[in-house]
Amino acid sequence: MNIVPISESAVVCSLPPPASIQQQRQLWAFARQLQSEQDIVEVVLGMNNLTVFTDFFVDFKPLVQRLEQLWAELKVSDFQGRHIEIPVIYGGERGQDLSDVAKFHQTTPERIIQMHSEPIYTVYMIGFQAGFPYLGGLPENLHTPRRASPRTVVPSGSVGIGGRKRGFILFLRQVGGS
């Protein structure tokens, strides 16, 4: 784990890429453990990292040593999250790029829908805007490059595939420009 200060009262603890469900589970367990630590005010989970906010007057070197020790002693439990089924309507206003994605993958929109709806996705983190889940579990054969020109408005309820390396973004709210 790499620990770097980002302010007088915060450090980022990062794991080496690529992000994986195993590493994310370790971070979830670490975040739960840190919640009860003295001098730690808040823990914010990210993708393959977490940010630890401390009391303003905590010395960096002892903090890093303590975090490294806690990480080395970490016991990852079989934490089970909630299973939430999200109904998806493919195509139309909320699926403007479905035919483009099918064309990119040299298949049909129906096959894209089938491949997308089969896996169980895991929320790695919440970010970008309130309630925006970054999801892991997208099959590699669905990784799709981002659009050359992003849309300024994406209708609420749209599903988005965000690239080859991290193709696991689900839009549940309106996003984009003004």
What does this structure look like?
- 24% of the residues lie in helices and 22% in strands.
- The protein is an alpha+beta fold and 178 residues long.
- The strands form 4 sheets. It has a 4-stranded antiparallel β-sheet, covered by helices on one side. Strands 5-6 form a two-stranded antiparallel ribbon.
- Helix 3 (98-104) packs across helix 4 (109-117).
- Residues 164-178 have low confidence and may be disordered.
- It comes from Haemophilus influenzae R3021.
- Residues 1-171 form the Carboxyltransferase domain.
TL;DR?
With 178 residues, the chain is α+β, with helices and mostly antiparallel strands. Helices cover 24% and strands 22% of the residues.
Keywords:
178 residues, alpha+beta, Gyrase A, domain 2, Cyclophilin, 2 domains, four-stranded antiparallel β-sheet, 24% helix, PxpB, CT_C_D, ATP-binding, ATP binding
